[in-house]
Structure formats: C-alpha cells, structure tokens
Write a structure and sequence with these properties.
about 150 residues; five-stranded mixed sheet
Length: about 150
C-alpha cells in the first residue's frame, strides 16, 4: 500500500535590501513606520493587528497583517503569527494594532495578548521589543515606554 502526502516547501525572498531598511531605535521610529505603511482608509474604520519583522540589527525585514477585525476588536491566531515570524527567520518582532476610536488606553485583552505572545516568543528565542497601539490622529501608545512589556 502506498501513501502519498503533500510536499511542503518553505521559502523566503527579500524584495527590498534589508541593509537599507529603516533601523528602529525608538517607539517614535516604530510609530512612523506603522503610520506610513498602514492603509489610512481603514485606520479609523476597523481594528487590525500587524507585526513588524526585524533582523538582529532591528532593521525592518517587513510587515505582516496577522488579522483584520471589526470596529471594536480583532482575533489574533498565534499559529499564523509565529508561522510568519519563523518562516522569515526574524529574531525580533514588534506588535501593533490600531484603535479606530482614537482611545490610546490598552484594554485588558490587549495586555493579556501581549503577555501570551511574549511567552511564546521566548520559546523560540525571539524578542518582542514593543507593542504599539496607533490611532488615526497620528498618536500612539507604546507598551515598552509605559512599562507594560
């Protein structure tokens, strides 16, 4: 009896020279990259969760939208998040989501999710450097700057 299974191929291709990518040294740098790369038409409309993928020099390898939700929330599947992180061989990540309401205060769910992701990342020796909440007017809240990370 012969059993056939699917072949799985994993690949990663850089389309942008990471050596020339932005190097993040502060939450202000992160917020600038996020606001520049977030669709302004959805920032005030619905909540989304993204990650910035970083190399060992904190240069941005890319961004990935993990989830796209509704007006008051979005669901993050850690298997998808870490699938992307591991496939891109990223050593650091920055978490980000928006609050369409303009409220910068993190919810209890935001805090619990951050802890859950950070604990899982530790198993893979991946650094979670920050979690930013961004709002339509350009302001942001940094978990790291506020001692929540």
């Amino acid at each position: 009896m012969t059993f056939k299974v699917n072949e799985i191929k994993i690949s990663y291709r850089e389309h942008v020279d990471v050596a020339n990518a932005p190097q993040l040294t502060s939450s202000r740098d992160v917020a600038h990259v996020l606001h520049t790369n977030w669709d302004p038409d959805t920032l005030a409309l619905k909540e989304s969760f993204k990650i910035l993928l970083l190399n060992n020099s904190n240069r941005v390898k890319g961004t990935y939208q993990v989830s796209d939700g509704g007006i008051t929330g979005t669901i993050v599947d850690l298997r998808i998040l870490f699938g992307v992180v591991l496939k891109t061989l990223s050593v650091g990540i920055i978490l980000a989501h928006n609050h369409p309401s303009g409220n910068l205060k993190p919810s209890q769910q935001d805090k619990l999710l951050t802890v859950k992701i950070r604990r899982a990342a530790e198993l893979f020796d991946i650094k979670v450097l920050d979690h930013l909440i961004i709002v339509p007017n350009g302001q942001y809240f940094s978990f790291a700057d506020n001692g929540l990370l």
